[in-house]
Amino acid sequence: MEIVEQPELMQDLADRLRREGKQIGLVPTMGALHDGHLSLMRRCRSENDTSVMSLFVNPLQFNQKSDLAAYPRDLEGDLKKAEAAGVDLVFAPTEQAMYPEGFQTFVTVEELTRRWEGEFRPGHFRGVATVVAKLCTIVKPHRAYFGQKDYQQALVVERMVRDLYLDVEIVVMPIVRDPDGLALSSRNVNLSIEERKAALSLHRSLAFAEERVRAGERDAKAIVEGMRRIIEREPLARVDYIACCHPETLEPLDRIGGRVLFTLAVWIGKTRLIDNALIPR
Ligand code: PAF
Q1: Contacts of 213 (CB under 8 A, 6+ apart)
Q2: How far, in Å, CA of 147 to CA of 173, rounded?
Q3: Residue 29 near ligand 1, beta carbon < 6 Å
Q4: Please, which residues have CB within 8 angstroms of residue 172's CB and are 6 or more apart in sequence?
Q5: pTM reported for the whole predicted model
Q6: C-beta 160 within 6 A of ligand 1
Q7: Is any ligand 1 atom within 6 A of the Cβ of residue 60?
Q8: Quick check: is 37 catalytic?
Q9: From CA 27, how far away is CA 84, in angstroms rounded?
Q10: Where are the domains of the chain?
Q11: 28 lines ligand 1 (CB under 6 A)
Q12: CA of 189 to the centre of ligand 1 (A)
């Protein structure tokens, strides 16, 4: 497995691969790899000749310095996992290489970033869209793989790709959960045993929503209130938002007519977790 740090070198390699007719797949990551990432890598491998994983903790998408500092890092472990998952090439640039002095070009996706994560983490999606646009122009992938756990992120990236005519297909893969329902996240390593138990309330509340919709409930607000009660029973939990919204526009819904997205962000102690469910799946 090759490790490339320089964007120019990565671009040259990508050009060569494309000239040779090779299909390139990209799994963008910030490291701290878990089985969710590995599911993206497996799909990437099955659909491309060369699988590239980018590993870059993007400072631009952290709206709080403390969050950036607390973000788990395990370069050695990540490289082992990537190699075992069949990644051919790791693009691991430095901050200096990605954002050299004088850098001043950003990508902003407007409407889709107003609510939910965009509201609670100002500047977050500007950071995500900018880095993903850069990764796509550096790695030149035919396909790039994202997880549904970051649902809003995936929508934002899809919109950006369409709006900028970026020549890449976005593939979104289902959420991977632990057997007890906790959605895999790099941040889970920061949870104590007690916090991890409290964190199960996120999945419990989404399962409740699914059950209510299946039972014929159409009042979205009533379901969201029920979800809130489930989570707020946990003394360690503090809700940022719980919403029922349109799966494409992310606008909140009062009534459930067709497919809907339940999405939430909750602090468990000092760890902020997000989760969601598309219903019906
Ligand atoms: O989902 C993530 O890990 C990050 O937001 C991404 C897509 C790698 C961009 O930094």
Answers
A1: 223, 256, 260, 279, 280
A2: 5
A3: yes
A4: 145, 146, 147, 148, 154, 158
A5: 0.97
A6: no
A7: no
A8: yes
A9: 15
A10: 2-173, 186-274
A11: yes
A12: 17
Query: pLDDT tens-digit profile of 236-263?
Result: 999 999 999 999 999 999 999 999 999 9
- The CATH code of domain 186-274 reads 3.30.1300.10
Distances (CA, A) of 216 to 9, 220, 255, 256, 257: 56, 11, 12, 9, 11
Residue identifier of the C-alpha nearest atom 8 of ligand 1: 29
Cα radius of gyration rounded to whole Å, the chain: 19
- pLDDT of 195-210, one tens digit each? 999 999 999 999 999 9
**Residue 58 CB–ligand 1 contact under 6 Å:** yes
What ligand 1 atom has the least distance to the C-alpha of 147? 1
One of 3.10.20.30, 3.40.50.620, 3.40.630.30, 2.60.40.10 is the CATH number of 2-173, namely 3.40.50.620
What ligand 1 atom has the least distance to the C-alpha of 54? Answer: 8
The Å distance, Cα 197 to ligand 1 centre, comes to 26
- What's the one-letter identity of residue 53? M
